[in-house]
Write a structure and sequence with these properties.
Helix content is 30%, strand content 22%. By secondary structure, it is of the alpha/beta class. The chain has a 5-stranded parallel beta sheet with strand order 3-2-1-7-20. The protein is elongated.
Length: 349
Amino acid sequence: MTTSRPYDLVIVGGGSAGLMAASLAVQFDARVALVEKDRIGGDCTWTGCVTSKTLRKAAKVAHTIRTADRYGLVPAEPVVDLGAVMNHVRSVVDEIYQEESPQALRADGIDVYMGGARFLDPHTLAAGKDTIAARNVLIATGAHPYIPPIQGLENVNYLTYETIWELDTLPRRLLVAGAGPVGSELAQAFRRLGSNVTLIASGDRILPRDDPAASRALEDVFRSEGIQVVPNARVELVWQDEAGQIHVGAGGNGLVGDTLLIAAGRRPNVDGLDLEKAGVDYSASGIQVDDRLRTSQHHIYAAGDCTGGYQFTHYAGWQAAMAARNALLPGASKGVTDLVPWTTFTDPE
């Protein structure tokens, strides 16, 4: 099917940024289309904010039971069924998803196309089997897990923040390669649920983008809870033996576990969009935008993680709102800033 009348705004990507832009654009009485190749909600709903914070809450409850003597109560060792915990995580995800499903969005006046999007020319996109025309376009395709070039990794069954939610058995020994926000949050959660956890940091401290004093304080908490923190240990080699055990060579250390989580950061989703046909400049670091979030084509905007900037849900949502406003209303608002607060949801935060 080909749309005969151009949309005022076509949004490519149905994650946090795309949803914010679509919700705002319909309030401007604009004709809006949202194109999503996978699942509405993006990383935040399915593999990021909602999932990790729900898991973290369950882990905190387990930790509170285990350390109840701090409150004058009798402590106990909780019995953790990871399958039941993950079912709880999925139930929370499903509850959130009901508010942002294609049916819910269509009821709000947003046309939803499920399928991969690619540009045919600067004003025309293929959206699955459909072809749609656009006066303005907002690219909000997010990012994906970065898999570093580690020798032997292709022969090892490893997890990322996208696939760890498929676990239904608690790892006995979890190796976490990467001590940024994702690695640190999940390392603490799984330790509190009962796994033995080794957190591998490529630099001299965990959370290298956070305040050094806070980073050191949190590392002390991690060690007190039984997490083995290995600093200055960039992962160079991995292999899996016949018994399924995973061996990691990192900074001269030989580490062994039964489960490996790669948490080495994220990279913008820019492939497969045929951005060249739209005349949009980009690189592996992201889509290039000015401070009004315009790309090299003045009617095409980009917001959120796909631009390679700060990778936070609230920042992506704010950028998307600014991009929608700039595309549809007179004048322009700045959509890029260095004044971005953030929280890493460890305990303490």
